[in-house]
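It would be a great kindness if you could assist me with a short task in structural biology. Thank you for your consideration; the sequence and its tokens are set out here.
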Amino acid sequence: MTSLMWFQAIAILVIFLIFIGLMMTRKLPTILALPAMAILFALIAGVPWMSSDPEATTIAKTVLAAGSMRLSGAIAGLIFGAWFGQILNKVGITKSIIRKAAELAGDKPMMIAILFFVTASIIFSAAGGLGMVILVGTIVIPIMLTAGISQFVASIVVLSSVGVGALFNVSNWAVYVDVLGLTVDQIADYTLVAALPLIFISLAMIVFYIKKDGKGRKSWSMPTNTGGDGGNGSSGPNGGNGAKKVPAIALISPIVPVILVFAFKIDIVPAVIIGALVTIILTWPKRPIHILSSALVEGIQDIAGALALMIGIGILLNSVMAPQVAALISPLIESVLPSSPWTYVIFFTLLSPLAIYRGPLNVWGLGSGIAALFVTAGMTPVAAMLALRVVSNVQAVSDPTNSHNVWVADFTKSDINEILKKTLPWMMVAVLISMIAGAFMIF
């Protein structure tokens, strides 16, 4: 690299660090930071704004126009996943599953916490987003608190289940398809590597803190503001309010898309659509057409922020993958790229906290661009995918900048930074176990 290229590379790194600081301190939202970074990276690298050459890489066409459509497949998966989640809510399946778990647990705090962890994980495997977290949380958290479970444990039960559910939620997989060019089958093959350690470590963490914290307070009142949009799916026909009893067979509906993807290798969007139709057939609510249409509108409302974020990620991806930018960044990436199983394990385990605060290993922030650069620098797409999915467990459970972490901490009156400090060591152990198992499968 020439001295000018080194200067440009350092300038990009400085911009990168400045924007991380702005996002961490919440002075600049991620949905604005990502496209702004993308434009600055391209300008520093000398990418022209426009060109008369239709094949040329430009900021206007390549970075902004094409970049905003880069993750179209992932955006479609996100929309259909949110639609499915609202259908489960409207026909009453979500609340029925939680009610069954509560009946099974009785008044045993340990059993209640474990069953709600399993139940919520299943629900979140079908539908994510803040709206679904609020819906589930407003039901299960009061039950746990009135059973004597501490506010902190109630918080980590919900947050850990969000992390587990996200790994099995097939609508989330499309981002790895679009970013790294992998097939759904390849992603499915490594899902248990990322999920099983998280499940067992989360259970161990929940049991440990229940025994350590002892009994929580049994008197607890529902906050007057539960987060706004979380309950919007409970209105309307059969609105999940128990007006119509849900057939027992219909309780399998949340895992139908997961089974279709894992067992029958069906693509994400058709698997979710089939899952939605199976749900309607098994429950057969009044006005099913209205439920299907209103669920789509409300589902899109729930994920509007995530959609904007994915557009920003696509723009950033196209910027860092532009030849001029990649030529500057790739040498820096190559110098730190792990090349053996143990360096791969150590590298991503020690750096896994960089997935929080919208850091460089956060797939919903800078991580997608970094992963693409890892692949450009010589790492296999499968290795990059596994590393990103595994460290995302830290982000899903511990990150104080997650909207669901903020809501859960506020709802339970817990300290969000205490949640970070107490869960981070456990999540890093889960990362270590997954990285060890994955490293010797990949290398």
Observations:
- The chain has one domain: 12-442.
- The chain has a mean pLDDT of 84.
- Residues 12-442 form one domain.
